[in-house]
Write a structure and sequence with these properties.
With 116 residues, this protein is an alpha+beta fold. The protein has 3 helices and 2 strands, in the order αββαα. A hairpin with a 3-residue loop joins strand 1 and strand 2. The longest helix has 14 residues.
Length: 116
């Protein structure tokens, strides 16, 4: 994020995009912020308070590491806290068939947006 291919930096360009995204949402939309470096971290749980979101964005600083996948996992765990279907078994190495998809009836889930 410290590279200078975007001016002034990639981090600042990402912050500008995130601020713009927040400002364009109605106050009924909850947004959470996940940071990632060597892991993924929820730094602002979902809220519809734009001041809290903007303050969190302003506190973000570049760190070493680019574990985007861990950031996505942290975001998904926040959106779907009770879903353990993809969690690896701790010590069970017995081959098992992949789980079949579980259909979700329309209107029974909360819409969610991942912004990376």
């Amino acid at each position: 994020m410290a590279a200078d291919d975007l001016q002034p930096t990639r981090m600042e360009a990402a912050k500008v995009a995130a601020r713009k995204f927040i400002e364009q949402q109605p106050n009924t939309v909850q947004i959470g912020i996940v940071a990632f470096s060597d892991g993924g971290f929820v730094v602002q749980p979902p809220t519809n308070d734009p001041d809290a979101l903007l303050a969190t964005i302003n506190r973000l600083t570049p760190q070493r590491g680019t574990s985007l996948g861990q950031g996505i996992f942290a975001a998904l765990k926040t959106i779907f806290p009770d879903d353990e279907s993809d969690a690896p078994a701790a010590a069970d190495l017995t081959p098992t068939p992949p789980p079949s998809p579980t259909p979700v009836p329309p209107g029974t889930y909360t819409p969610a947006i991942l912004f990376c």
